C-alpha cells in the first residue's frame, strides 16, 4: 500500500486518485500566494508605495529616489530573509515531527532555541556582541551543542535514540537551558536589553549581511531535508520495520537531526526564535499532500515562507507608525490555527 493511500482520512469522501489533482492545485495556490506576499512586502510598510513604483525600483533602480532606496535596500532584503528563514523553519519542523514521530514536535524539541539563546547571552555578556551579525555563529554553535547533548542523553541504553527518549531529553535540556538564560538576564541589564527584541523573533533590521554568512549551510541542510522523504516514510512505519527494510535507523536519524539543527539554528540565529511555524505548517500541508513525506517536504518550505512573510506584512500594518515583531504576529495567528486543526481532527498521526 502506498504512502498516498495511507494519507487519506477515512470517511471524508476522498479518493487516492484525487491526490495528484489536489497537489497541482495546491502547488499553484502556494506559488500565487508567495508571489502575492512578496509584492505586499515590497509595497507595504510605514508608508504605502504604489505597485508601479515597486516595479520601476526593481527594473530601473534610481539611487536618488527615496522610495526606490526603501524598496531595494530595505524591504527587498527583509523579504528575502523572511522567505529563507520561513522555508528553513518549515523544513526543520517537518524533520522534527518525522524524526521523532511526534505530531507536537518542533525544532525546540532538540533544545535548538534555548541552546541558541544561551549562546547569544554568552556572546553579549562575555564577548561584547552587539547585533545579529556579531552573534550569528554563537547562536548556531549553541544550538548544535544543545542538540548534541540531547542526542547523547537519548542514545543511552539498549534501544538507542528512540522518539520518546529524544522528546524527553529535549524537554529536560530545554528547561535547564531556559533556567540558565533567565538567571543571566536577571543579573545583566545589558544582556536583557539586547535579548528582548531577539527573543520574540524579528525580520526588522535583518538584511543580507546577516543572511549571507549562514546561507551556504542552510542550502546544504535544505538539500538533505528535501532528499529525506523516503527515509521519513520508513521512520513512520516504526524503527523495527524500517530496519527490516534495510534502513540504518540510528545513522539516518543522526543525519536528519543534524540537518534539522542546522536549519533551525540558522533561522534562529538570523531572526530569533520564531514559534509555531515549524509546528503548524507540516500539519497544514498534510491536509493537501497526504502522509508522503516527499510531498510534505516539497510543500512545507514555500508554505512556511508564505506564512512568515505574510505575518511580517501584518506586523507592519497593525501598529503604525511603529510595527510589531513578526514572532508576536506568528504566535497570535499560529496558536488558534493549530487549535482549529486539532479540533477538526485534521492533525495526522505519525
From TrEMBL:
Report the transmembrane regions from the record.
24-44, 76-96, 108-129, 135-154, 166-187, 207-227, 254-281, 293-314, 326-343
Compartment annotation: Cell membrane
**Family matches, as InterPro entries:** ABC_BtuC-like (IPR037294), ABC_transptr_permease_BtuC (IPR000522)
Q: Topology relative to the membrane, per the entry?
A: Multi-pass membrane protein
Q: Which UniProt keywords apply?
A: Cell membrane, Membrane, Transmembrane, Transmembrane helix, Transport
Q: Which superkingdom does the taxonomy of this entry point to?
A: Bacteria
A matching Pfam family: FecCD
Main subcellular location of this protein, as a coarse class: membrane
Please give the family membership noted in the entry: Belongs to the binding-protein-dependent transport system permease family. FecCD subfamily.
Q: What is this protein called?
A: Iron complex transport system permease protein
* Organism per entry: Microbacterium paludicola
